[in-house]
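Morning F.,

Quick status update on the modeling queue. The single chain you submitted on Monday has been processed. Sequence for confirmation:
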Amino acid sequence: MFDVRKKIRHPLVAFGLVFLTLGIYYLVWYYKVNRELRDIGRATGQEDQLGRKPLNSLLAITVGWLIIVPPFVSFYRTFQRIEAAQELAGTRERVNVWLGFILYVLGVLLLPVEVIYAQSELNRVWYAEPSRATPHGPSTDATLSPA
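Structure tokens below.
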């Protein structure tokens, strides 16, 4: 599909690792998801839609809490990036950005269930039919792994 390294993660394993590592994996996962979206953007020339700096997204959900708003903006934009990647991949069903954002807000208060939704939606990009993707052809570096 895209000429980038794919990382398919099982959504429930990613969710479980957040608890197993006492939240540290959440930060790793968030950075990796935004980096993968940036890589798709670079490969397709859509960096404006898919982001340029995954570290800024990570900083927004960590130190951004000092001014409250940045984590919410960052996660909303991450779901927009996932939707843009799905559009580029030609998936039939798209992520519901508002549902993802609401799950994030609930995750702040209760459990980070947005990890399950976001990862399953990003996996759709990786599973998309190669014939609908960019002319670079399919990448064969897809593996099913938790991290």
